[in-house]
Design goal:
single chain; alpha+beta; Rossmann fold; Elongation Factor Tu (Ef-tu), domain 3; 3 domains; 6-stranded mixed beta sheet; 6-stranded antiparallel barrel; 8 helices; 24 strands; 35% strand; globular
Length: 421
Amino acid sequence: MQLLRFSTAGSVDDGKSTLIGRLLYDSKSIFEDQLEAVEAASKSRGNEEVNLALLTDGLRAEREQGITIDVAYRYFATPRRKFIIADTPGHIQYTRNMVTGASTADLSIILIDARHGVLEQTVRHSYISSLLGIQHIVVAVNKMDLVDFSEEVFDRIVADYRDMAQALHIGNVTFIPISARDGDNVVNRSERMPWYTGAALLEFLETVPVGRDACDETAGGLGAFRFPVQYVIRPISSRFPDFRGYAGRVAGGVVRVGDRVRVLPDGLESEVTHITQAADELTEAFPPESVTIRLADDIDISRGDVIVRADEPQPCQQQDLTLDVCWFNENPLQIRSRYVVRQAAGESLGIVRSINFRRNVNTLEKETGVTSLNMNDIAEISVHTAQPLVFDEYRQNKITGSVIFIDPDTNETVGAGMIKN
């Protein structure tokens, strides 16, 4: 069964948590004791109806304030697909939480309050979704019950969003009018909006192409083969004295037994003789499968090396990187600061050469002359690493094109970056 990871984003009180609660409730994906707890919490807060937002607002501070602060992950399944939901916060001071929650998403649901239309926060959340390379954007125009289910209001919001999306070069956008509180067009199609002929939200989530299906529909297919080596499996018993395998997760493309491959950074070549997954022998592997690859030649390979197909476009090998970065830490990023740059299965010490510009995430203006980045800032920076990294651009491959920054003194993850050059 396929898995779809999706995130939700929107302005405060647009109804993100209520929407997820409605999805869980109407798809019968919550336990009776969970529902009883939410009913009791709703009554204690004076709500006449069950407040479905409480299913996802897990932190005590969130329950008391009625807002989402942390990223709340929820899991549910239908007969057609499994889902992982990341309910991300809408406040600008929690931008890092949104980046974290949306970084692994295949799809982003951006909620818009039908009464307010496209706001600055809508632009910010759309920009971050675009920055993270999320393939599918669903604009859920919520609270249609509060505008009398007006088709004119919906069409105006669609037109405004399309203008903004064109400026941000965002494609593949789907618009769905909903009422999360009442369930209109969430799991079942609404009879109160007969003018909308598209799919309900859950129906769309069940059928949108993801994983290999999504890759097969793109012009570039699955892309070039990338296999960052995570672990070298050496002989473990006298029964297999010559066994040497390379374990990792396929980060892009397809590899098959008999393929000619190249090991980077050294550039040595060999041929794939076996692909195994647990006790199963495979003839091919593709993302995101975790497998062990064996080669015909005994090559010196270690963790952090990358195996690629010799007949395909090769990744970059450079020490100078240009990245979009989101800063996570209270201690600001400073020019000339040193961090451990971890990318795929490898890492290197790196130094920040320059901050090219900081992005105002509400107006999208570039702010130049910046010498430091504070928590939740998004900027373009240049970094020089001690050893060359093997990488692709983030838009070509999210795994080999992304890095995290680690403070070498505290081992804290202080930032995340998307490689551009």
